[in-house]
Amino acid sequence: MEASGNAGLTSLSRRDFLGYSSVSVLGALLPSGLASAAPAAMPMNPLFETKLGIKFVLGGMVHETAHEGPCRVGRLEDLTQEAETRGFQGRLRRFVAELEQREFPPEVEILKPVGFQMLVKEKDIDFKFPEECFAEIEADIAKTDLLVVLQGFASDIAMKLAERFGKPVATIGQDWIVDVPAALRHQGHESYAALDWDDFNHLARTLWVRKAFAATKLLIVTDRLGQAPFGLSSAIHDFDQLRALYGMGYHCVSNGRLAQEMDAVLGSEQEQKRAERIARDLMAHAKAVHMTEAHVVNSVNFYLAVTQLMQRHGCNAFTIECREICPLEMAAKYQFTPCMTLSLLKDRGYPAVCQTDINALIPMMALSYLGRRSVYMGNPVFDAKDNMLTIFHDVPGLQMKGFDAGASAYELRNFTVSGWGVTFRYDFGADAGQAVTIARANPGQTKILMTTGEIVDGFGVDQIGCSLGVRVKIQDARKLYRHAADYGAHFVMAYGDYVDQMQNLSRVVGFDLELV
Fold this sequence. Notes:
Blueprint: E1 2-4, H1 14-18, H2 23-29, E2 52-63, H3 81-101, E3 108-110, E4 114-120, H4 131-139, E5 146-151, H5 154-165, E6 169-172, H6 179-186, E7 191-194, H7 197-214, E8 217-221, H8 239-246, E9 249-253, H9 255-266, H10 269-285, E10 288-289, H11 293-312, E11 317-320, H12 322-325, H13 330-334, H14 339-347, E12 352-354, H15 358-371, E13 376-383, E14 388-392, E15 411-414, E16 422-425, E17 435-441, E18 447-459, E19 469-474, H16 477-484, E20 491-495, H17 499-509, E21 512-515
Parallel strand pairs: 2-3, 2-4, 2-5, 5-6, 6-7, 8-9, 8-11, 10-15, 11-12, 18-21
Antiparallel strand pairs: 1-9, 13-14, 13-20, 14-19, 15-16, 17-18, 17-20, 18-19
Helix pairs in contact: 5-6, 7-15, 7-17, 9-11, 10-11
């Protein structure tokens, strides 16, 4: 069984996707600062290399005749068409020079700015909009995600651009410039106003995250597409509706198809050599290893099978239903659990969730894209007496503090009594006092429940089974529990406080954010 939705991801070569032959090659494939990150993982999700194209348009006006009036004063020699044109060209040059000195988020690409100088003809109250300026914008429109109109008569220019190009239009300023979004929104166009340049950078990052959502394509391994996973009835399972809301694509493969891919990996001498190298690398970087190399290789084989399926179908997110591969005895046959693969994927920016829990995937994507970091997830336990929330699952990321940070210390421990099923063991207690954001989406796909807290301690490092966890002090566990009854089980947890950023994202993407 295979089913697919639309995708926005450019296909990768298999070699680039797997990205593993040696430590030196891995370092060469990674963006600057990532060579010391989690071992044995594929290169960063290329989605993080996509850019939000921004086209700045500097507004202005030139008059055909020199005269003073209620909206225009000065020496007549400074009010000629020639003088006004020279003055505007000077302002444009200074603006471009200032723009080059400004810092923007890494996701932003500044396209060539355009000067948009309207003409007021003699005794004519209808301003003339220059076609050559439209043509300059048109030349870059395929790469433009946001038009930014500044200065003179910005709302008039912004309206023309919105009508002609259908792109979001923004402006920046602390004064009357709010006329731009008021005018455009009233006419049904998407528009924003940033109070200052810092506010604009927040807007740009938020719009990039929305673009990243639309460029995300999920690989789902299940035999029950369109049905909620067993034991998790609240989980989103209408993937076409998910695509309509967020622009996400998906591709579904059956458990049988996954087994075929596993057999192909096992039958390939080249893939087995790669699996052995990855396993040894993981073991060499670990603080402690509680498994045999052969058992580590078994879980790496699953990782290789998954990444090959993701590459083949142009996917950059992943989920699998544990309660299907367990009774089918696939996990027992191949001696793996999905835990390590989910962790490795998240550490390279590929959102990956347990048990086909898409309610966890949506906030995981948002927090991973906003924070450029790996995001933890797990089952919640609410302690109303001490206002404590416990989250436990064996899927910690080693890049929870950022993709540009070094990998966190970890141990390798078996999931099963039999000794197989690699899990990363991370001591959350080392991060006591760390601020975190916790979230989950609702079954209707339209709301996200969110709270913040501080890590108190961790547990389960020296245990087997799904036992690793973290305890977080939150403001009101009882209230969160009551609200969770509308959202379901599993919460995601990201290091950092993302309340403001998630509020901005909710307005841009269109979901409701419920803060507790």
